[in-house]
Write a structure and sequence with these properties.
There is one protein chain. The protein folds into 2 domains: about 210 residues, Spore Coat Polysaccharide Biosynthesis Protein SpsA, Chain A (Alpha-Beta Complex), CATH 3.90.550.10; about 70 residues, no CATH class. The chain contains 10 helices and 8 strands. The protein is an alpha/beta fold. α2 links the parallel β2 and β3. It has an 8-stranded mixed beta sheet with strand order 7-5-6-4-1-2-3-8, with helices on both faces.
Length: about 300
Protein backbone atom coordinates (compact mmCIF):
# COMPACT_ATOMS: atom_id res chain seq x y z
CA UNK A 1 0.00 0.00 0.00
CA UNK A 2 1.27 3.45 -0.93
CA UNK A 3 -0.19 5.74 1.72
CA UNK A 4 -1.95 5.46 5.07
CA UNK A 5 -3.84 8.38 6.61
CA UNK A 6 -4.40 8.20 10.38
CA UNK A 7 -6.78 10.52 12.22
CA UNK A 8 -8.19 10.40 15.76
CA UNK A 9 -11.77 11.14 16.80
CA UNK A 10 -12.99 12.92 19.92
CA UNK A 11 -15.97 15.28 19.79
CA UNK A 12 -15.41 15.27 16.02
CA UNK A 13 -18.92 14.64 14.70
CA UNK A 14 -19.32 18.01 13.01
CA UNK A 15 -16.00 17.66 11.17
CA UNK A 16 -15.97 14.04 9.96
CA UNK A 17 -17.81 14.45 6.65
CA UNK A 18 -15.92 17.56 5.53
CA UNK A 19 -12.61 16.06 6.61
CA UNK A 20 -13.32 12.89 4.64
CA UNK A 21 -14.24 14.79 1.48
CA UNK A 22 -11.21 17.07 1.62
CA UNK A 23 -8.65 14.40 2.54
CA UNK A 24 -10.01 12.03 -0.14
CA UNK A 25 -9.76 14.72 -2.78
CA UNK A 26 -6.20 15.47 -1.70
CA UNK A 27 -4.97 11.88 -1.54
CA UNK A 28 -6.39 11.00 -4.96
CA UNK A 29 -4.03 13.57 -6.48
CA UNK A 30 -1.19 11.41 -5.13
CA UNK A 31 -2.37 7.80 -5.42
CA UNK A 32 -5.42 5.58 -5.48
CA UNK A 33 -3.61 2.99 -3.34
CA UNK A 34 -4.38 4.32 0.12
CA UNK A 35 -6.31 3.80 3.34
CA UNK A 36 -7.92 6.21 5.79
CA UNK A 37 -7.82 5.02 9.41
CA UNK A 38 -10.12 6.74 11.90
CA UNK A 39 -9.39 6.03 15.58
CA UNK A 40 -12.38 6.57 17.87
CA UNK A 41 -10.93 7.55 21.26
CA UNK A 42 -14.15 6.91 23.16
CA UNK A 43 -15.84 9.96 21.65
CA UNK A 44 -19.17 10.65 23.42
CA UNK A 45 -20.88 11.98 20.26
CA UNK A 46 -21.78 10.13 17.05
CA UNK A 47 -18.32 10.45 15.45
CA UNK A 48 -17.93 6.67 15.46
CA UNK A 49 -21.27 6.07 13.75
CA UNK A 50 -20.46 8.59 11.04
CA UNK A 51 -17.13 6.92 10.33
CA UNK A 52 -18.74 3.49 10.23
CA UNK A 53 -21.17 4.85 7.63
CA UNK A 54 -18.23 6.10 5.60
CA UNK A 55 -16.62 2.67 5.89
CA UNK A 56 -19.79 1.01 4.61
CA UNK A 57 -19.68 3.27 1.53
CA UNK A 58 -15.91 3.34 1.02
CA UNK A 59 -13.84 0.29 1.91
CA UNK A 60 -10.68 2.38 1.92
CA UNK A 61 -12.00 3.82 5.18
CA UNK A 62 -11.11 1.77 8.25
CA UNK A 63 -12.28 2.49 11.77
CA UNK A 64 -10.65 1.52 15.05
CA UNK A 65 -13.05 1.67 17.98
CA UNK A 66 -11.22 1.87 21.32
CA UNK A 67 -12.94 0.39 24.36
CA UNK A 68 -12.89 3.78 26.15
CA UNK A 69 -11.15 7.14 26.12
CA UNK A 70 -7.42 6.48 26.50
CA UNK A 71 -6.17 9.93 25.50
CA UNK A 72 -5.05 11.62 22.31
CA UNK A 73 -1.46 10.40 22.31
CA UNK A 74 -2.33 6.76 22.96
CA UNK A 75 -5.03 6.85 20.29
CA UNK A 76 -2.46 8.18 17.83
CA UNK A 77 -0.04 5.34 18.60
CA UNK A 78 -2.83 2.81 18.20
CA UNK A 79 -3.72 4.20 14.79
CA UNK A 80 -0.09 4.21 13.67
CA UNK A 81 0.27 0.57 14.70
CA UNK A 82 -2.43 -0.38 12.16
CA UNK A 83 -1.04 1.68 9.27
CA UNK A 84 0.13 -0.45 6.34
CA UNK A 85 1.30 2.22 3.91
CA UNK A 86 4.82 2.91 2.68
CA UNK A 87 4.13 6.43 3.92
CA UNK A 88 1.93 7.48 6.85
CA UNK A 89 0.18 10.82 7.14
CA UNK A 90 -1.03 11.75 10.63
CA UNK A 91 -3.53 14.54 11.21
CA UNK A 92 -6.38 15.61 13.52
CA UNK A 93 -9.95 15.48 12.23
CA UNK A 94 -11.03 18.84 13.66
CA UNK A 95 -9.89 20.79 10.55
CA UNK A 96 -7.67 23.11 12.56
CA UNK A 97 -4.94 21.47 10.53
CA UNK A 98 -5.90 21.61 6.86
CA UNK A 99 -6.21 18.22 5.11
CA UNK A 100 -4.55 19.90 2.13
CA UNK A 101 -1.30 19.78 4.10
CA UNK A 102 -0.98 16.22 2.80
CA UNK A 103 -0.17 17.44 -0.71
CA UNK A 104 2.21 20.10 0.57
CA UNK A 105 4.06 17.63 2.80
CA UNK A 106 4.12 14.99 0.06
CA UNK A 107 5.75 17.34 -2.45
CA UNK A 108 8.30 18.40 0.14
CA UNK A 109 9.15 14.81 1.06
CA UNK A 110 9.39 13.57 -2.52
CA UNK A 111 11.52 16.54 -3.49
CA UNK A 112 14.06 15.91 -0.75
CA UNK A 113 16.69 13.22 -0.43
CA UNK A 114 17.17 11.32 2.82
CA UNK A 115 14.24 12.99 4.59
CA UNK A 116 12.14 10.65 6.71
CA UNK A 117 9.62 13.02 8.27
CA UNK A 118 7.91 16.26 7.28
CA UNK A 119 6.02 17.85 10.16
CA UNK A 120 4.14 21.07 10.74
CA UNK A 121 5.03 23.85 13.16
CA UNK A 122 2.68 26.74 13.91
CA UNK A 123 4.01 29.95 12.44
CA UNK A 124 1.97 31.83 15.02
CA UNK A 125 0.27 30.15 17.97
CA UNK A 126 -3.50 30.17 17.76
CA UNK A 127 -5.81 31.52 20.48
CA UNK A 128 -5.75 34.47 22.84
CA UNK A 129 -2.81 35.92 24.69
CA UNK A 130 -3.05 33.47 27.61
CA UNK A 131 -3.14 30.42 25.35
CA UNK A 132 -0.17 31.72 23.37
CA UNK A 133 1.76 32.60 26.53
CA UNK A 134 1.01 29.31 28.33
CA UNK A 135 1.81 27.33 25.17
CA UNK A 136 5.17 29.02 24.84
CA UNK A 137 5.87 28.43 28.54
CA UNK A 138 5.01 24.75 28.12
CA UNK A 139 7.58 24.22 25.38
CA UNK A 140 10.22 26.25 27.23
CA UNK A 141 9.80 24.13 30.36
CA UNK A 142 9.81 20.87 28.39
CA UNK A 143 13.00 21.78 26.54
CA UNK A 144 14.68 23.01 29.73
CA UNK A 145 14.07 19.65 31.35
CA UNK A 146 14.66 17.49 28.27
CA UNK A 147 17.94 16.06 27.05
CA UNK A 148 16.46 15.94 23.53
CA UNK A 149 15.63 19.20 21.78
CA UNK A 150 11.94 19.28 20.90
CA UNK A 151 10.69 21.77 18.30
CA UNK A 152 8.33 24.41 19.71
CA UNK A 153 4.69 24.57 18.61
CA UNK A 154 4.58 21.27 16.75
CA UNK A 155 1.21 20.23 15.43
CA UNK A 156 -0.12 16.72 14.96
CA UNK A 157 0.08 16.78 11.15
CA UNK A 158 3.15 14.93 9.85
CA UNK A 159 4.10 12.72 6.92
CA UNK A 160 6.38 9.81 7.81
CA UNK A 161 8.13 6.96 6.06
CA UNK A 162 7.14 3.45 7.02
CA UNK A 163 10.59 2.84 8.50
CA UNK A 164 10.27 5.82 10.85
CA UNK A 165 6.77 4.73 11.84
CA UNK A 166 7.96 1.22 12.68
CA UNK A 167 10.75 2.55 14.87
CA UNK A 168 8.31 4.93 16.56
CA UNK A 169 6.13 1.97 17.52
CA UNK A 170 9.03 0.42 19.41
CA UNK A 171 8.35 2.94 22.20
CA UNK A 172 6.18 0.81 24.47
CA UNK A 173 5.76 2.98 27.55
CA UNK A 174 2.22 3.29 28.88
CA UNK A 175 2.70 6.90 29.96
CA UNK A 176 4.02 8.59 26.85
CA UNK A 177 4.69 12.13 25.69
CA UNK A 178 4.31 11.77 21.95
CA UNK A 179 6.04 15.05 21.06
CA UNK A 180 9.06 13.80 22.97
CA UNK A 181 9.27 10.41 21.28
CA UNK A 182 8.77 12.03 17.87
CA UNK A 183 11.99 13.95 18.50
CA UNK A 184 13.76 11.19 20.41
CA UNK A 185 13.30 8.69 17.56
CA UNK A 186 15.74 10.73 15.49
CA UNK A 187 15.93 10.24 11.71
CA UNK A 188 16.08 13.17 9.31
CA UNK A 189 13.14 15.42 10.03
CA UNK A 190 12.16 18.71 8.42
CA UNK A 191 9.69 21.25 9.72
CA UNK A 192 7.33 23.36 7.64
CA UNK A 193 5.68 26.50 8.95
CA UNK A 194 1.91 26.15 8.76
CA UNK A 195 -1.19 28.00 9.85
CA UNK A 196 -3.42 26.32 12.43
CA UNK A 197 -6.93 27.72 12.83
CA UNK A 198 -8.90 27.79 16.07
CA UNK A 199 -12.35 26.99 14.70
CA UNK A 200 -13.12 24.16 17.11
CA UNK A 201 -13.58 24.29 20.87
CA UNK A 202 -10.56 22.81 22.58
CA UNK A 203 -11.06 19.71 24.72
CA UNK A 204 -7.92 20.60 26.69
CA UNK A 205 -9.08 22.39 29.83
CA UNK A 206 -6.61 24.21 32.08
CA UNK A 207 -6.59 21.18 34.39
CA UNK A 208 -5.84 18.86 31.46
CA UNK A 209 -3.07 21.15 30.24
CA UNK A 210 -1.41 21.14 33.67
CA UNK A 211 -1.80 17.37 33.82
CA UNK A 212 -0.26 17.11 30.33
CA UNK A 213 2.71 19.22 31.42
CA UNK A 214 3.34 17.11 34.53
CA UNK A 215 2.94 13.86 32.60
CA UNK A 216 5.15 15.09 29.75
CA UNK A 217 7.97 16.01 32.13
CA UNK A 218 7.84 12.94 34.37
CA UNK A 219 7.38 10.44 31.52
CA UNK A 220 10.13 11.87 29.34
CA UNK A 221 12.77 13.45 31.57
CA UNK A 222 14.61 12.43 34.74
CA UNK A 223 16.11 15.87 35.27
CA UNK A 224 13.71 16.84 38.11
CA UNK A 225 15.18 13.99 40.18
CA UNK A 226 18.66 15.36 39.57
CA UNK A 227 17.47 18.82 40.61
CA UNK A 228 16.01 17.36 43.80
CA UNK A 229 19.45 16.01 44.69
CA UNK A 230 21.04 19.38 43.89
CA UNK A 231 18.47 21.26 46.00
CA UNK A 232 19.12 18.90 48.91
CA UNK A 233 22.86 19.30 48.54
CA UNK A 234 22.73 23.11 48.44
CA UNK A 235 20.25 23.29 51.33
CA UNK A 236 22.42 21.02 53.46
CA UNK A 237 25.53 23.06 52.68
CA UNK A 238 23.85 26.37 53.54
CA UNK A 239 22.40 24.90 56.74
CA UNK A 240 25.85 23.62 57.73
CA UNK A 241 27.39 27.08 57.20
CA UNK A 242 24.61 28.65 59.30
CA UNK A 243 25.22 26.13 62.10
CA UNK A 244 28.94 26.96 62.06
CA UNK A 245 28.08 30.67 62.32
CA UNK A 246 25.80 30.10 65.31
CA UNK A 247 28.44 28.00 67.09
CA UNK A 248 31.13 30.57 66.29
CA UNK A 249 29.00 33.45 67.67
CA UNK A 250 28.23 31.51 70.85
CA UNK A 251 31.80 30.39 71.53
CA UNK A 252 33.64 33.62 70.71
CA UNK A 253 31.04 36.36 71.32
CA UNK A 254 28.64 34.64 73.75
CA UNK A 255 25.68 35.56 71.51
CA UNK A 256 22.64 33.50 72.48
CA UNK A 257 20.55 31.69 69.90
CA UNK A 258 17.51 33.87 69.17
CA UNK A 259 14.74 34.17 66.65
CA UNK A 260 11.67 32.06 67.46
CA UNK A 261 9.69 33.54 64.55
CA UNK A 262 12.44 32.96 62.02
CA UNK A 263 12.82 29.41 63.35
CA UNK A 264 9.13 28.62 62.84
CA UNK A 265 9.15 30.17 59.35
CA UNK A 266 12.19 28.09 58.46
CA UNK A 267 10.56 24.92 59.75
CA UNK A 268 7.41 25.55 57.69
CA UNK A 269 9.41 26.52 54.61
CA UNK A 270 11.68 23.50 54.64
CA UNK A 271 8.82 21.24 55.68
CA UNK A 272 6.84 22.37 52.65
CA UNK A 273 9.90 22.01 50.42
CA UNK A 274 10.47 18.45 51.62
CA UNK A 275 6.83 17.53 50.97
CA UNK A 276 7.06 19.06 47.48
CA UNK A 277 10.21 17.14 46.64
CA UNK A 278 8.79 13.92 48.03
CA UNK A 279 5.71 14.55 45.89
CA UNK A 280 7.87 14.76 42.76
CA UNK A 281 9.58 11.51 43.70
CA UNK A 282 6.14 10.02 44.33
CA UNK A 283 5.02 10.91 40.80
CA UNK A 284 8.06 9.15 39.36
CA UNK A 285 7.35 6.12 41.54
CA UNK A 286 3.78 6.06 40.26
CA UNK A 287 5.13 6.07 36.69
CA UNK A 288 7.34 3.10 37.52
CA UNK A 289 4.35 1.37 39.13
CA UNK A 290 2.34 1.83 35.94
CA UNK A 291 5.13 0.82 33.56
CA UNK A 292 6.12 -2.41 35.37
CA UNK A 293 2.54 -3.68 35.01
CA UNK A 294 3.22 -3.75 31.26
CA UNK A 295 -0.39 -2.94 30.44
CA UNK A 296 -1.36 -2.03 26.84
CA UNK A 297 -1.67 1.70 26.26
CA UNK A 298 -5.03 1.15 24.60
CA UNK A 299 -7.55 -1.61 23.96
CA UNK A 300 -9.32 -2.01 20.63
CA UNK A 301 -12.98 -2.95 21.00
CA UNK A 302 -13.63 -3.43 17.31
CA UNK A 303 -11.81 -2.90 14.02
CA UNK A 304 -13.86 -2.08 10.94
CA UNK A 305 -12.10 -2.83 7.69
CA UNK A 306 -9.72 -5.68 8.30
CA UNK A 307 -7.97 -7.78 10.90
CA UNK A 308 -6.79 -5.91 14.00
Amino acid sequence: MKLSIVATLYHSSSYVDEFYERITKEVLQITDDYEIIFVDDGSPDDSLQKCISLHNKDKKVKVIELSRNFGHHKAIMTGLSHAKGDFVFLIDVDLEEEPELLGKFWNELQGSEDIDVIYGVQENRKGGWFERWSGGLFWNIINFLSTTKIPHNMITARLMTNQYNKELLRYKESELFIGGIWADAGFNQREIKVYKSSSSTTTYTTRKKISLLVNSITSFSSKPLVYIFNIGLVTTFISFLFILKLVFDKVFFDIAFEGWTSLIVSVWFFGGLIILLLGIIGIYLSKIFIEVKNRPYSIVRKFYGGNS
